[in-house]
Design brief:
By secondary structure, this protein is α/β, with parallel strands linked by helices. Helix content is 54%, strand content 13%. It has a single domain, classed as TIM Barrel. The structure holds flavin-adenine dinucleotide (FAD).
Length: 313
């Protein structure tokens, strides 16, 4: 299963596949299922609709891996505008940002300058900022900058656990150690399985081990983490989180479930009805291809659906 996913992630980088998906109406239709629109107005409409259903949001303006310093600075300004908009509308939303969109490939100094600019605005509005986790080449710098910024911005907002937090991936061998350090520093963590193609030298090659590691890590985070986010659509793991929380008297208010826009809406609503905090990750923008290819690779049925419709036409 993970082999198939890796194959699909590799195929997604082939230019002809990229062009086919981005040019074909079905590719754009598929993107429409997972992406809330091209601009902030469309994304805010999706936020309002989710909030109406009792669901909170994390907004992601799609984009990653820029090597252009002006583009990275523009992305930071853009996120400040998003924060202003969230504050002005009173939306129940925070933001998720990718360090490679803010200049990490150019240099840590460039990236830090941009993230500090975003975090200063986030502190002014008391809105939490999540640093998404990208491929394993970025794990170390993302964690290092998270620890540094968490210390630097401590006490500058009233956000639970501080204005900045990050993400860990259960597919990586190193993650139990990373979680121990994040928990020790009181940093908010989102737990995911991991969406990137990784070699067996750094990541479990078998899905069973990724899932089992997720189970163990969610125990640690529920017991000792600051408002952890259990981000998965895997019902077995969601049920396990509920069971563990009940067994250890951890109130539902002390953690949240997170899911992706367009996936398992039924489960999102059921959890809200059961009294759990639910947050949906809402991506928007024109640079949807890398995000869409990760969603396709997670569930080849999505791709089969697109291809069979394309062939039928
Ligand atoms: C809120 C949120 C934020 C995330 N942030 C990051 C991040 O920062 N870094 C990172 O590497 N990864 C991130 N991810 C992605 C994550 O790593 C997984 O790739 C993704 O969540 C799929 O894994 P799963 O836990 O849902 O379990 P799986 O075992 O992959 O899926 C369980 C079930 O969920 C449903 N499902 C899962 N994916 C899809 C899909 N694409 N389409 C339709 N149904 C699907 C299916 O019913 C499937 O059987 C995030 C995920 C979420 C929910």
């Amino acid at each position: 299963m993970l082999m198939l996913r890796n194959l699909m992630l590799t195929a997604a980088n082939v230019p002809v596949v990229h062009d086919f998906v981005t040019d074909h109406p079905l590719g754009r239709q598929m993107a429409g299922r997972f992406v809330a629109g091209q601009d902030l107005d469309a994304a805010m409409a999706a936020v309002a609709e989710l909030n109406r259903r009792g669901i909170q949001v994390s907004l992601d303006h799609l984009g990653e891996n820029t090597s252009n310093a002006e583009e990275a600075a523009a992305t930071a300004r853009d996120y400040v505008a998003i924060l202003d908009r969230i504050a002005a509308t009173g939306a129940q939303a925070n933001i998720s940002i990718k360090l490679t969109a803010l200049g990490l490939d150019i240099g840590e100094d460039v990236c830090l300058r941009n993230v500090r600019f975003v975090l200063a605005a986030a502190c002014a509005h008391n809105i939490f900022v999540r640093l998404d986790m990208e491929g394993s080449a970025y794990t170390e710098p993302t964690l290092r900058l998270t620890h540094l910024l968490h210390a630097e911005f401590a006490g500058k907002s009233t956000v639970t656990g501080g204005v900045v937090g990050t993400v860990v991936q259960s597919m990586l061998y190193r993650t139990a150690d990373d979680v121990a350090q994040l928990v020790a520093d009181g940093i908010r963590v989102r737990l995911v399985k991991g969406a990137y193609r990784e070699p067996p030298s750094v990541a479990f090659p078998n899905k069973f081990d990724v899932d089992e590691n997720y189970r163990l890590l969610l125990h640690t985070l529920l017991r000792a983490g600051v408002y952890p986010a259990i981000a998965t659509h895997d019902e077995r793991l969601i049920t396990e989180a509920q069971r563990f929380a009940r067994q250890h008297d951890i109130a539902p208010a002390r953690f949240e479930f997170q899911m992706l826009y367009g996936i398992r809406r039924d489960l999102q609503e059921r959890l809200v009805q059961e009294g759990y905090n639910v947050r949906v990750y809402v991506p928007y923008g024109t640079q949807w291809y890398p995000y869409l290819s990760r969603r396709m690779a997670e569930r080849p049925a999505n791709l089969i659906f697109v291809m069979s419709n394309a062939l039928r036409k």
